[in-house]
Write a structure and sequence with these properties.
- The structure is a single chain.
- The chain is mainly β.
- Strand 5 and strand 6 form a beta hairpin.
- It is globular, with a radius of gyration of 13 Å.
């Protein structure tokens, strides 16, 4: 099992930026594929970004491609998501998730509104 704790969510204006972080409780993090998943009001779960163990390969949903960047620091057991050019439809609770244990954090709220 892996415990995950997200942070960095906030209220931001359209066009703004945020950086989300997720800290894992175990060094299994460095051997695990990681995801950022969001849940928007009235919608289903959407995997917006994924990253492989070494950080060399990434995947982005079409809805965020070119605006969001996923990264990881295996020495610090930390996963990050840089959100740029935010839009109102990016409003959601953002979760980090791992592939091996399918662990989930408590989520962090991102609200994009003027």
């Amino acid at each position: 099992q892996m415990q995950l704790v997200e942070s960095g969510g906030a209220l931001v204006q359209p066009g703004g930026s945020l950086r989300l972080s997720c800290v894992a409780s175990t060094s299994f993090f460095s051997t695990d594929w990681m995801n950022w998943v969001r849940l928007a009001p009235g919608k289903g779960l959407e995997c917006v970004a994924s990253i492989d163990i070494g950080g060399d390969n990434t995947y982005y949903a079409d809805s965020v491609k070119g605006r969001f960047t996923i990264s990881r620091d295996n020495a610090k057991n930390t996963l990050s998501l840089q959100l740029n050019r935010l839009r109102s439809d990016d409003t959601a609770v953002y979760y980090c998730n791992d592939l091996r244990f399918n662990s989930w954090g408590q989520g962090t709220q991102v609200t994009v509104s003027s």
